[in-house]
Structures are given as C-alpha cells and as structure tokens.
Amino acid sequence: MKKSKLFLVLGLTLVLSLVLAACGGGSDSKSSGGSKDSKQELNLMESALIPSADSTKADDAVGLNVINQTNEGIYALDKDGVAQPAGVTEKATVSDDKKSLYIQTT
C-alpha cells in the first residue's frame, strides 16, 4: 500500500514537472540577425604551436591548416565554375610571355 502511494506521488510529480517545463517557454524578442557594423571575430584553436607561417617552410598539418585559412587566392570560382578575381583583386592579367601576373587591387 505504501509503495503504490509512493509511486503515485512520484508519477504525479514527474507529470507536473514535465507540464510546467513544457509550458514555461517565453517569447524571445531578440532578432537572429546581427548588424554589419558590429564587430565580427572568429577564434580558432589548434592542437599544437604553429611552427612557421611561411608557406615555403610549412610541412606539418597545423602550419598548413593555418596557411589555408588565412591566405586568400587571387581567383575564386563563381556559381558557374568560371574563375573570377577574388577578395581585394579587382583585375588580374597575364603578360604576353605568360611569365608574369599583374594584379590590380581595389
């Protein structure tokens, strides 16, 4: 008899706590979009110290990962797969002898 009352009280307590938890949500008036004027910052962690940021000396996964994330290419592919000047590059032209690349930045 005592066990059945105990299970009844525990069951009712559990149901009541679930109902109160489900009904307790308030409305959030914050907008999900931020303004472009706000500071935008991304912090990344690495598993080891970066031995070198020089792309000619980087021979490990940590250094190459940092170089790939921070260096920007001259060209990027658009939605049609055509190479377009990327980042600050306004125009990139190749010389007639195909040995020099001239980059005009904004």
Q: What share of the residues does DSSP label as strand, in percent? A: 15-25%
Protein structure class: alpha+beta
User: What spatial order of strands do you see in the largest sheet?
Assistant: 1-2
What is the gyration radius calculated from CA atoms? 29 Å
**Strand tally:** 4
Specify the overall morphology.
Answer: elongated
Helix and strand pattern: HHEEEE
Protein name: Dipeptide-binding protein dppE
Keywords: Signal
Organism: Listeria cornellensis FSL F6-0969
Signal peptide: 1-21
Overview of this structure, please?
With about 110 residues, the protein is of the alpha+beta class. Among the domains are: about 30 residues, no CATH class; about 30 residues, no CATH class. The chain has two helices and four strands. Strand 1 and strand 2 form a beta hairpin. The radius of gyration is 29 Å and the shape is elongated.
Task: Describe this structure in a few short sentences.
The chain has 106 residues and is α+β, with helices and mostly antiparallel strands.
